[in-house]
């Protein structure tokens, strides 16, 4: 007899079901989202849709969550979509189609005006109105700044006091760009910083700013995100990270950095897809900060 699958939605209140989703994502993508539990928990706006077998194994999932964006100076109520996977034995039976439909219907009922996702399979989502948008990073020489800028201090998310500092900075942050950025996305920022051991989080104490960055060789650096009430100028940020850096690559639009880098196409593993956003509102080059990846 074929196995009966139970459809469950919004099931994160059940720790066993959350763990079953973590197991699915570990098996399919090799990532362990259960680390979120030590970083403040999953996004409370998450609305997962999943199929579970009689022994409680999650065999398919697709989740929606609230991901307000700033796009061209306007706050857009967007839904993000993530954690889409079906176990190999269950593929090709329409499970994913059913979950996508439920998630998109839910977002429409909730009044979200736009949708956003990252995928390596854009063809899956085109039938539902999503289109791929190109992303750009920004490169150039670092402006010279007074060398008396205080040195930033490295933060360690495994230290409770440091985790608290980052959480507070993320709660109070100014969107990193008016052109395109998340309004807030605490949970993914923390998980992304946790997943990539090369990402450094540094605190500019005087500015109450947390910088997510990576050194590149001796004289260059990548600025991945800035969580601060007021985004400091790029020259100031870089001087606080090390006086020897001459060139920067910035992975979000630079309108708040007092600096213009050269826009260069960004090729990640996944493409960014959106729906419900006017092409005209996406006229300037942009990318979604890697710390907001989901
Ligand atoms: C991609 C995946 C979720 C599809 O699950 P599935 O249950 O087999 O999909 P369904 O049977 O519900 O098919 C839904 C639709 O997607 C299409 N589809 C399936 N796999 C696809 C792929 N790799 N690329 C593009 N379209 C695909 C199907 O043809 C079907 O189209 P239709 O509605 O026009 O008939 C599954 O193969 C998987 O988990 N892959 C690995 C993880 C992954 O890639 N997740 C998505 C990342 S964003």
TrEMBL record:
Q: Name one Pfam family in it.
A: Acetyltransf_9
- N-acetyltransferase domain sequence ranges: 2-156
InterPro entries per the UniProt record, alphabetical: Acyl_CoA_acyltransferase, GNAT_dom
Protein name in the entry: GNAT superfamily N-acetyltransferase
Please name the source species: Peteryoungia aggregata LMG 23059
